[in-house]
Amino acid sequence: MQKIEKILEDFKEDKIALADVLTFLRKLPYENLSFARIDHHRGLRRGFPEVVYGESKTADEITAIVQAMKAFGSNILVTRVDARKAGEVARAVDGMAYHPVARILSYRQDESEESRGGTIQVLCAGSSDAPVAEEAAVTAEFMGNKVRRFFDVGVAGLHRLLDIWDELRTGSVYVVVAGMEGALPSVIGGLVERPVIAVPTSIGYGASFGGLAALLGMLNTCAPGVAVVNIDNGFGAGYLAGIINRSASGEGRETGGGRP
């Protein structure tokens, strides 16, 4: 968004040729890399650039997408990237940062996304849920939100949650991550007045069915104000929390993400 404004200002002041402006605008709907069509217009349309899902892509494919987005001037977030692929991409593209717990690659060049609104609180029930919780936290932070983390505060030791009661009440949006039976979001939902986004994880023994038990438990919560995303979808929860926080701070725009 910031780059578009700068190009138009430069053209207005005769600092850039019309041909260069047209070259830039031709890429605005999307850029075809044959194996992927990069939606450069998404940042203008929804307020945040397209996010890349990296798990099923090769390092070369991720690198090509990242280089195209970098050339366009976008901030870049690549989710579900293991350490080996992250190393290959980082060697090819200077300035990439890797968040190993979240398994996220990021690159920031547009600083117009500043901290806004209140504080998003990300909580997880057990330390085994931390990768999903950290994916949510890093996503929300990259979108320009303030984030506080409270990990390993599950219902098996409720006193741990009560110890942070005063801090807990200061959140603007809550991302609550849990596996096993998925009870933590219901507890949080009964204690706070702001929206709670519940994230079931695939952590648990046989009868957890890879997170299905936690998902069903969260969908059947008796606490009002709790919404549920898919199993292990920390990215989706962090992104939704960022949108809610932006809207609550009065900075909503008719223009966020999704993934190619």
How is the secondary structure organized here?
Elements: H1 2-12, H2 18-26, E1 31-32, E2 37-38, H3 42-46, E3 52-53, H4 59-72, E4 76-79, H5 83-92, E5 97-99, E6 104-107, E7 116-124, H6 130-142, E8 145-150, H7 158-162, H8 165-168, E9 173-178, H9 184-189, E10 196-200, H10 212-219, E11 226-228, H11 234-248
Parallel strand pairs: 3-4, 7-8, 7-9, 9-10, 10-11
Antiparallel strand pairs: 1-2, 4-6, 5-6
Query: Number of DSSP strands?
Result: 11
Count of discrete domains = 2
Strand content: 15-25%
Gap from first CA to last CA: 19 Å
The oligomeric state is single chain
Radius of gyration: 20 Å
Mean pLDDT: 87
Examine the coordinates and then state which fold CATH places here, giving the name of the CATH topology of the largest domain.
Answer: Rossmann fold
Order of helices and strands: HHEEHEHEHEEEHEHHEHEHEH
What's the helical proportion of residues?
25-40%
Q: Please list the strands of the largest sheet in the order they lie side by side.
A: 8-7-9-10-11
Biggest beta sheet summary: 5 strands, parallel
CATH-level-2 architecture of the largest domain: 3-Layer(aba) Sandwich
Q: Which CATH class of the largest domain is shown?
A: Alpha Beta
Structural class: alpha/beta
- The global form is globular
